[in-house]
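Hi U.,

Before I forget, here's the chain from the pilot set. I'm dumping it here mostly so it's searchable later in email.
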Amino acid sequence: QVQLVESGGGSVQSGGSLRLSCTASGDTYITYCMGWFRQAPGKEREGVATISSDGRKSYADFVKDRFITSKDNAQNILYLQMNSLKPEDTAMYYCAASSWYCRATMTQGHFGSWGQGTQVTVSS
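Structure:
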């Protein structure tokens, strides 16, 4: 089992930056893909970014060139650096872990472990 805990959410002005963290514990050695998802009120949860065990990354078009995901393998921490934030980025952000390899399409059903989420609010 893998346990995930997100942190770093908050309220920022449009154009600002924020860094989210996700600390993993438990059987992290069976995690081959980790990702970030977000869900705004009235909308479905959508994939934001993924990073595989070999370091390969994938980003959704709406965050490309603005967000960067990275990981600290020694401390089992996943990061999401968010820059040039927009009001439409406002959502609950979740990190997730999968025992399967990352796929070309970010599908939440492929991730078996989820964090509790952290709120990100971007004002105009």
